């Protein structure tokens, strides 16, 4: 209690002695007297050069720097790219300090003092890139990249490691401009320590063509590039951990990285049975299953598939290599092997809505499965000269998988009387092979902005599978019956897709461009499924089932000429274009009367526009149409009895679906107030959407086929607001508020009547993060989700339910080397049926001790401390209401040891330069 009181006293004292000040001025060019927009102005402590505050000048060169400091004097720096920085000492003797005009001179040469200042500039803004200096943002000594990102203005990192920048998702994290191990951003952000990081650069994600031609990205997603300090870019670093606990729970991780300028070699290994299908090195919250994000290399590379269900034991090993030579080549390659073993028990309770009534389906099932996979990929990029770039991206994956599914399903009427039941067991053993490759050739031509691009890609996959299907379906009532099925199926499927594209851009002046394009895609699918019924007389599977077997070849050929015009202005950018899609599909059925041909022609319009008000504010609107060809299963008139309670059959007369999508985005960040605001809205309308047509008989047995229908649409609206409050170097508070609204209209058919459901949902979330002196971090959050579904049939009641989620995450790095973490989540689903758990308080706790200069950590972990973890949810559809519950990882306790090691330059491992 005394320690808590002392901590509270220190916090209150720091707040009391901090005073608020305002520094104003205008940054101009010394020669032209023009204002310098996006100049960086920052204040440092004179004693230890700790950054106190910073801001960015506006379009007129004016800036307002808010200070919260207990110090009497501070160093003030004014910097701009290509100009000599200005340093001033300001005395905090009055609340408002006006500096007037501050003239910066063009930098003739790189002076030593200027270089030192440049290394400390907290933030730089160029045309399309934000650059943060990692050392300018105070974190605890053992922080990783993710910890730094949480300190950056406008950057949010959620509890699963997902990164957003003012509402835009980060889909790529590079290290020295190259992919780090995999496409999962968490691989780099969770494994690289802050001490080796120099700069963090944030920009719009670009395609390979946009990178080479200098075009801007579309602004929909963001890329983070992490640069390594020069003195840390030669050497190695690694981490290893080992943990073991109750119920034989374990986790083992190892990571080794070797850096040498642009060359990197990495090795990774992981094994656990606590649902970390990938890899984690979070010092506090790792080894807590899939509730706190380890980075998921295995799943991101398609190596492990447990369908997101149950409990998985997995092992992964991998290696990665990257190298680059400026203006010559860039190479990255990786290889992974993964093994997984999963099991899951689940139950569902569904109310099925019919025009004349409803019935209930209850299901209990179990899944057991294992996979082992080998995956390799490479990305090779060659700059033949300054105008010609060739890139190749091959990828190969081989996966062996086997599984057993068992289920028992019963259907009852509204009075609880049993109508039918079905017991199913399915055994599968399969081998999947997939090879893909893409070739991209870009040639810049004589005029700026003029280029031609040729692309080629292929995707070749083969699936061989053996399956044993056994089911017993029983009908109750006056026409009682029992029907059993025992079948053995061999599958040999092949899918080959080839695409070629040519595009050409012709400048029409300084800002206008004309785009021509042509694309050709050829997809062929060969499907052979031999179904053999069990023969009681011979006790073998030798009765060929002609009705359920398949042998067909399906092809889909599409040609797409395109034309577009664009304007790339300094502030206003827009593009208008059209694609003309000519689609030919053909199905040759060698067993049934399922041969057909179809041809479709569709004009697809697209347009986009963005306006940049200033460096921090942007508005974007986008419209696009696309088509979706029905799948083979939806087209082919072959009976599918995988679910004997719902027999499915395709419709060869289906048309293609066309979707119209509209989206709007607005982003703004106020550097002075440290507030971010983003708004988004959009929706889509679907013409000729393929929907289910279901017929349900008196025994609640269903037969489903498909048709095209208009009238399906969805819309969404939301915004996000963030605020950062920083008091000197004492504490930081980050607030986030993010509500969103969704509306959907779905159309389906049942027993000859149209069913229309309209779903409306609102889901606001509020969260905050409080950090004091890097000793205490508190992260509370709350989310409420309201859902309402209305139906067009009067006898159906509106479905309304609310779910609540509250969370609290606390971490203390005090006293001394002790690290204490708590992760608490409370979920409440009050509307689920009585057979399901309505709420759960899920609490994980970790207590660690760091030693050997914080290179080593010993930790004890309590997972699901209160033993209440569950996975319960409610959902609604066009004709059903469903409650669901499945297996989750439950309470265990684990002790672990982790160790970090490194050697850079001539430094000995584990020792720091003085």
From TrEMBL:
Q: What is this protein called?
A: Outer membrane protein beta-barrel domain-containing protein
- Species of origin: Galbibacter orientalis DSM 19592
Arranged from A to Z, the UniProt key words for this protein are: Signal
Annotated Outer membrane protein beta-barrel domain residues? 443-771
Q: Name one Pfam family in it.
A: OMP_b-brl_3
Q: Give a yes or no for keyword Signal in this entry.
A: yes
Specify the signal sequence span. 1-18
Q: Does the keyword Ligase apply?
A: no
Q: Where is this region: Disordered?
A: 399-421
């Amino acid at each position: 209690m005394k320690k808590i009181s002392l901590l509270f006293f220190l916090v209150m004292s720091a707040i009391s002695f901090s005073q608020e000040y305002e520094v104003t001025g205008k940054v101009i060019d010394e020669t032209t007297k023009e204002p310098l927009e996006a100049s960086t102005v920052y204040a440092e402590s004179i004693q230890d050069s700790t950054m106190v505050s910073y801001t960015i000048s506006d379009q007129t060169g004016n800036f307002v720097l808010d200070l919260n400091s207990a110090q009497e004097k501070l160093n003030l720096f004014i910097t701009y790219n290509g100009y000599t920085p200005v340093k001033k000492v300001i005395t905090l003797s009055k609340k408002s300090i006006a500096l007037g005009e501050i003239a910066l001179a063009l930098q003739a040469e790189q002076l030593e003092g200027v270089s030192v200042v440049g290394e400390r500039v907290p933030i730089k803004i160029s045309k399309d890139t934000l650059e943060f200096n990692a050392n300018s943002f105070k974190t605890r000594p053992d922080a990783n990249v993710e910890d730094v990102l949480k300190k950056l203005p406008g950057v949010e990192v959620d509890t699963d490691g997902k990164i957003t920048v003012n509402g835009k998702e980060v889909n790529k994290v590079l290290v020295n401009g190259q992919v780090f191990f995999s496409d999962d951003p968490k691989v780099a952000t969770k494994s690289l320590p802050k001490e080796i990081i120099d700069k963090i650069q944030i920009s719009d994600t670009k395609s390979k063509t946009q990178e080479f031609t200098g075009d801007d990205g579309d602004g929909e997603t963001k890329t983070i590039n992490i640069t390594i300090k020069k003195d840390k870019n030669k050497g190695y670093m690694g981490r290893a951990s080992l943990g073991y606990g109750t119920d034989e729970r374990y986790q083992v991780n190892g990571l080794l990285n070797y850096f040498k300028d642009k060359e990197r070699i990495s090795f990774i290994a992981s094994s656990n049975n606590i649902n970390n299908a990938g890899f984690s090195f979070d010092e506090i919250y790792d080894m807590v299953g899939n509730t706190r994000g380890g980075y998921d290399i295995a799943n991101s590379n398609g190596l492990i598939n447990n369908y997101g269900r149950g409990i998985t034991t997995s092992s992964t090993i991998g290696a990665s290599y990257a190298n680059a030579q400026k203006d010559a080549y860039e190479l990255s390659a990786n290889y992974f092997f993964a093994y997984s073993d999963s099991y899951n028990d689940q139950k569902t309770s569904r109310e099925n809505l019919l025009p004349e009534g409803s019935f209930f389906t209850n299901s209990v099932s179990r899944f057991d499965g294992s996979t082992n996979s080998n995956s390799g990929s490479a990305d090779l990029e060659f700059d033949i000269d300054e105008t010609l770039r060739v890139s190749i991206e091959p990828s190969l994956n081989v996966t062996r998988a086997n599984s057993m599914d068992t289920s028992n399903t019963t259907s009852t009427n509204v009075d609880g009387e049993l109508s039918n039941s079905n017991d199913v067991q399915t055994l599968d053993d399969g081998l999947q092979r997939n090879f893909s490759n893409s070739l991209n050739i870009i040639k810049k031509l004589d005029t700026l902005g003029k280029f031609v691009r040729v692309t080629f890609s292929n995707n070749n996959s083969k699936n061989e599978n053996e399956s044993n299907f056994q089911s017993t379906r029983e009908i109750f009532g006056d026409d009682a019956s029992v029907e059993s099925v025992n079948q053995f199926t061999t599958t040999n499927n092949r899918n080959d897709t080839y695409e070629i594209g040519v595009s050409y851009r012709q400048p029409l002046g300084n800002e206008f461009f004309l785009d021509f394009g042509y694309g050709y895609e050829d997809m062929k699918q060969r499907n052979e499924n031999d179904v053999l019924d069990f023969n009681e007389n011979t006790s073998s599977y030798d009765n060929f089932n002609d009705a359920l077997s398949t042998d067909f070849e399906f092809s889909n050929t599409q040609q797409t000429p395109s034309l577009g015009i664009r304007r790339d202005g300094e502030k206003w950018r827009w593009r208008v274009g059209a694609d003309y899609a000519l689609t030919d599909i053909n199905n040759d059925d060698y067993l049934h009367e399922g041969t057909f041909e179809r041809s479709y022609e569709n004009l697809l319009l697209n347009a986009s526009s963005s306006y940049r008000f200033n460096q921090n504010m942007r508005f974007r609107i986008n419209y696009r149409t696309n088509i979706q060809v029905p799948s083979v299963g939806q087209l082919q008139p072959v009976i599918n009895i995988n679910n004997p309670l719902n027999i499915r059959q395709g419709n060869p007369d289906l048309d293609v679906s066309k979707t119209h999508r509209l989206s709007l985005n607005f982003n703004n960040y106020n550097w002075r107030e440290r507030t971010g605001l983003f708004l988004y809205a959009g929706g889509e309308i679907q013409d000729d959407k393929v929907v289910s047509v279901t017929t349900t008989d008196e025994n609640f047995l269903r037969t489903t086929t498909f048709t095209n229908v208009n009238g399906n649409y969805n819309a969404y609206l939301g915004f996000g607001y963030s605020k950062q409050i920083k008091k000197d170097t004492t504490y930081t508070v980050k607030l986030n508020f993010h509500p969103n609204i969704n509306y959907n209209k779905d159309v389906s058919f049942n027993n000859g009547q149209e069913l229309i459901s309209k779903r409306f949902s609102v889901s606001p979330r509020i969260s905050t993060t409080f950090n004091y002196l890097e000793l205490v971090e508190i992260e509370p959050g709350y989310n409420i989700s309201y859902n309402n579904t209305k139906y067009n049939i009067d006898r159906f009641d509106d479905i309304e339910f609310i779910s609540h989620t509250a969370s609290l995450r606390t971490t203390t790095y005090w006293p001394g080397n002790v690290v204490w973490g708590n992760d608490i989540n409370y979920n409440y689903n009050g509307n689920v049926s009585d057979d399901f758990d309505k709420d759960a308080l899920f609490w994980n706790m970790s207590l660690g001790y760091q030693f050997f200069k914080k290179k080593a950590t010993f930790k004890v972990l309590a997972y699901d401390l209160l033993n209440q973890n569950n996975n319960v949810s409610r959902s609604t559809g066009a004709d059903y209401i469903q409650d669901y519950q499945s297996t989750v990882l439950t309470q265990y306790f684990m002790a672990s040891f982790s160790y970090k090691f490194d050697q850079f330059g001539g430094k000995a491992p584990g020792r720091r330069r003085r």
